[in-house]
Amino acid sequence: MQLLKERILSEGRVEKESILKVDSFLNHQIDVNLFNEIGKEFHKRFHDENITKIVTIEASGIGIACITAQYFNVPVVFAKKAMSKNLDDDLFESKVCSYTKGVDCTIRISKKYIRKSDKILIIDDFLANGNAILGLKEIIDEAGAELVGAGIVIEKGFQKGGTLLRNMGIRVESLAIIDSMENGKIIFR
Amino acid sequence: MQLLKERILSEGRVEKESILKVDSFLNHQIDVNLFNEIGKEFHKRFHDENITKIVTIEASGIGIACITAQYFNVPVVFAKKAMSKNLDDDLFESKVCSYTKGVDCTIRISKKYIRKSDKILIIDDFLANGNAILGLKEIIDEAGAELVGAGIVIEKGFQKGGTLLRNMGIRVESLAIIDSMENGKIIFR
Questions:
Q1: What's the mean pLDDT in B160-168?
Q2: Does the beta-carbon distance from B28 to A110 stay under 8 Å?
Q3: Contact assignment for A76 to B33 by CB distance below 8 Å
Q4: Are B74 and B54 in contact (CB under 8 A)?
Q5: pLDDT of B17 over the 90 cut
Q6: pLDDT tier for residue B64 given thresholds of 50, 70 and 90
Q7: Residue A163, C-beta contacts closer than 8 angstroms, at least 6 positions apart
Q8: pLDDT by residue (tens digit) across B70-113?
């Protein structure tokens, strides 16, 4: 997606430990107009899949998932990372390790909101090692629902997640794949 | 907002400790069509205020803020609760106590994303004791920006937040104010 790549090149900052900061438009400050273009692109790629639900993980995925869901006219469900009084006891759970936060956490989705009949599109901002998607896949499998694919805004192609998921047969559509950030220079696939 | 009140009455569940569960459409599963109606309503109430930015706190506020921001054509900034490699060192910080999670946390916004010239609308899903809004107000004040008001989806009118904030002169627009949930019966103001 050309518009996204241009934005990454003009505003993204490469930092140590393979971190790409895109907090001016993607995951801290949010450019809602760009998100609409992202949502349209995901719809273009998945529109013939009869998606019934978009699933993501709090927090950065929620905005992209909500804007994208407008084009599919389906609800969003976001997995929660913290136990809350707002959550039921009857939950699907899965362990996920966050690359950027460096900690393990348990993600949870109420059993009420993923049904066997659901055809699910996962939406997330980044794909690095694939842990978030694997955690969500575990929950979707447990629910007996169908994982149609994953729509990713930025894939770090030099980390193992993309290859791992595609080798498992998961359809991964990334709008920008970065093959290298060596010496601070961003090279797209 | 009649549509919202009807939805609260039909799907909301009152639980112990003054908890209202609306996780089927507001803060776990998300009804994006309803969010659009909510966004339009916030725009109707604040459209003449020259808002330059919508600010919220992760996670439940993000979806509502993003959908609402489409009507104002402004960016969203969401305060983060966890330190992350994606965050800068140069941050505004504030302490916030979460009513539903029962823990204190520090919220953070990068100094780059709130400017002195900003006219800010805070958007959040719930108003109970007002701590989240007060935490964001502290950050907005420190930045020297202007807090135009707060758009709240559900205000628990029997908790102190609404009165506290309005007595401070903050314009609070709540789309549904619940005055009582005694014996599981929801009474709107």
A1: 98
A2: yes
A3: no
A4: yes
A5: no
A6: very high
A7: none
A8: 999 999 999 999 877 777 789 999 999 766 666 788 999 999 99
Task: Say which of B36, B77, B86 has its CB closest to residue A19.
Answer: B86
Q: Which residues in chain B have their CB less than 8 angstroms from residue A19's CB?
A: 85-86
Closest CA to A24 of B36, B115, B150, B60: B115
A182 touches chain B (CB under 8 A): no
Question: How many whole angstroms separate alpha carbon A90 and alpha carbon A108?
Answer: 10
| DSSP calls for chain B | -HHHHHHHHHH-EEETTTEEE-TTTTSSEE-HHHHHHHHHHHHHHHGGG---EEEEETTHHHHHHHHHHHHHT--EEEEBSS--TTS-SSEEEEEEE-TTT--EEEEEEEGGG--TT-EEEEEEEEESSSHHHHHHHHHHHHHT-EEEEEEEEEEETTSSHHHHHHHTT--EEEEEEEEE-GGG--EE-
Q: Are B78 and A59 a contacting pair at CB < 8 A?
A: yes
Tell me the residue length of chain A: 189
Q: Average model confidence (pLDDT) for chain B?
A: 95
A-chain residues within 8 Å CB-CB of B17? 85
A89 touches chain B (CB under 8 A): no
How confident is the model over A35-53, as pLDDT tens digits? 999 999 999 999 999 999 9
**How confident is residue A122, by pLDDT bands cut at 50, 70 and 90?**
very high
Whole-complex ipTM: 0.96
Distance from CA of A72 to the nearest CA of B (A): 10
Model confidence at A138: pLDDT above 80:
yes
The count of other CB atoms within 10 Å of the CB of residue A166 is 13
A39 touches chain B (CB under 8 A): no
What does the CA dihedral A137, A139, A141, A147 come to, rounded to 10 degrees? -50
Q: Residue A101 has what pLDDT?
A: 66
CA distances B165 to B134, B175, B178, Å, are 8, 16, 16
Token couple for B30? 């998300």
Residue B156 at interface with chain A, using a CB cutoff of 8 Å: no
Cis peptide before A59 (omega within 30 of 0): yes
